[in-house]
Structure formats: structure tokens, C-alpha cells
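Run Glycerol-3-phosphate dehydrogenase [NAD(P)+] through structure prediction, thanks.
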Amino acid sequence: MARVAVYGAGSWGTATAVVLADAGGEVALWGRRPELVRAINVTRTNPDYLPGVVLPDGITATADPAEAADGAEFAFLGVSAQQLRGALTGWAPVIRDDTVLVSLMKGVELGTDLLMSQVIAEVTGAGPDRIAVVSGPNLAKEITARQPAASVVACRDITVAERLQQVLHTPCFRPYTNTDVIGCELGGAVKNVIALAVGMADGMEFGDNTKAALMTRGLAETTRLAVAMGADPQTLAGLAGMGDLIATCASPLSRNHTFGANLGRGLSVTQASAVMTQTAEGVASCVSVLDLARRHAVEMPIAEAVVGVVKDGVHPRTAVKGLMERAAKPE
Ligand SMILES: NC(=O)c1ccc[n+]([C@@H]2O[C@H](COP(=O)([O-])OP(=O)(O)OC[C@H]3O[C@@H](n4cnc5c(N)ncnc54)[C@H](O)[C@@H]3O)[C@@H](O)[C@H]2O)c1
Ligand SMILES: O=P(O)(O)OC[C@H](O)CO
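Sure, done. The structure for Glycerol-3-phosphate dehydrogenase [NAD(P)+] is below.
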């Protein structure tokens, strides 16, 4: 039986703990608020993030990072991307140096433009064989309802990816291995930005043609960036790329899609942020994604339009007009 730690008792940390416990793991779920940790252990639910979902017996919550780390083969990291560096700096001293660190996050760090695997490497000094990523079309509510889903587990060391696949594999959750960590991470981070754009289109009551165009051209620009950063384009055609793009852009459960839809309906960024209780990673990460694009001389017009709306106050309709007026070109 695998002994694993999950750091972050938010929506996705908790849902991942459920998958791990369903797969037979003994799971220590670290939460930063002692009152939520107590509530999880007493009620066997996470009332703040996944109300109504009964947590399997294999999960024990703790507010003590050392208790969570004790004997853990894998440490899953599930906070928001912009909080990872600070949080991991606190946990790193208690995490053993043979524990594999697994990013659950889909974002790019502001200021440094680092992917989460790169932040993990910088903070802990871990090598690529100790850093892995889980990414794919995995909306937490559907996962905890045990609806069939697939995902990607990536590590540069394929034996580590295969072990990770084992500890996450259940009758409802089917992980595929990959060694393209950067491709998987970029697929996850950039689809959040594209989902903001698709959400805006929904909010402005555009139809499926518009959304299909944004998703398809969004995947094209994601792939351009990923390839420029050394990823395999096939990764972006898979679950961590196209798969996650479809789920996030199509689902009303997506926080990024919801945030975009509120902007499209006319809410300001401040108003849209005020109604969110969970993380919509694309709102911060769009800036870092665009930075990466510029650094790698890659054109990402949709990401640029999203940054215009989210950071520079451009009206979503003006952003659409700008995209449509771009010079004609071959596909
Ligand atoms: N929810 C999903 O369906 C889903 C699925 C796949 C991936 N993800 C990714 O997982 C990551 C986490 O998302 P989420 O849905 O769990 O978000 P969330 O908002 O539900 O939870 C975030 C968690 O991080 C904790 N946190 C925030 N700041 C912290 C800090 N400074 N120190 C310690 N803990 C801190 C919060 O207390 C909370 O428990 C994101 O990158 C997201 O893109 C989410
Ligand atoms: O709710 P979102 O927009 O953060 O998306 C959740 C997951 O990343 C979908 O795979």
C-alpha cells in the first residue's frame, strides 16, 4: 500500500486524495486551516471545497506538514500556482529527499515565468527523476462523483511515471504515462487562458462556431509555445493538451470558463474576482504565458487578447474585433 501526502485541501488536492485512497493508498491530506482539518476528520467531508462528497477512510487530514510527509513515497502539491513557492519553502525541510514531488497545478509563476516543475526544482533542489506532474481533463466534481476519466502522469524518469500511474489508477481514473513534463504543464496552464477567452465568448452569447475557433486556434498557439520550449507536439494533441482544453472550455464547472463568462457578461475583473471562491489560475498566469511567448518569439494572439481584457481593461468585444482584424494568413 502506498503511503502518500497531499499538500493542499482545496478542491483538487481533496479530489486527488480521493483518487489515491480509492486506489488503495494511505493518504495524509495537509490543510493549512486547523478548523478545516478538524472538519474533514470529524465529518469525513470537505465542507468548504467539496461539500457532500464522502471521503474514503484511507484519508486522514492534518495541519502538520511533517506528519503529512512522514513515510510518504509521493508528495502531491495542490495549492494555487502563485502560492507554491512560499508554501513549498515551508514544507521542503520536512519532506524526505527520496519522496517524489508531484505538481497538481496548472499555472505559470508570475515574475519568474517558471513552470511549477521548475519552481519545485528551484525550491527543493530535486532532480528531474523526483519531479512529476499530473495533468488532464479532470474537473474535481466529476472525479469525486467517480465518473470515468483519464489523465496524464509525467516524469522525465519513466519508471517514476509508471509507479505514479499505479498509485493513481482506479476503476474510474485512468492515468497514462508521459515523459514530456513541460508539454503536460504548458497544456494545463495555457488551456486556462483559452478557457477565459471561450468563457468571454459564452458571456457575450456567441455560439459554437466562435468557441470552436478559439479552442482550435488556442491549441495551435499553445503547441507553438510548447514546441519552442522543447515539448513534443504530440503531448498537446493528447489528454494534457486537447483533452483538457475541451473539458475546461466546455464545462460550466470550470472556474476559468466561469470567470471569463462573467467578464463577457459585462462584469469588471474586480467584480468577477469577488464572486469567485476558488482559484481561476488563468487570471494570473495569462501574463506569464504571454511573457513566455514573447521570450520565445511565438505569436499567441488569443493569450494577448485575454491579457488585454484581464489586465488592461480592454472590453471583450474590442478584443474579439482585434482578433478578427488580424492579417489573413494560411492555417
Ligand atoms: N479543481 C479542479 O478541478 C482542478 C483540476 C485539476 C487541476 N487543478 C489545479 O490545481 C491547483 C489547485 O486548484 P484547486 O482547484 O484545488 O484550488 P482551490 O482554490 O480549490 O484550493 C486552493 C488550495 O490552496 C490553499 N492555499 C492557498 N494559498 C496557500 C498558501 N499560501 N499556503 C498553503 N496553502 C494555500 C487553499 O487553502 C486551498 O486549500 C490549480 O493550479 C488548478 O489549476 C484544479
Ligand atoms: O476549474 P478550472 O477552470 O480550474 O479547471 C479545472 C481543471 O483544470 C480541468 O481539467
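The mean pLDDT is 98.
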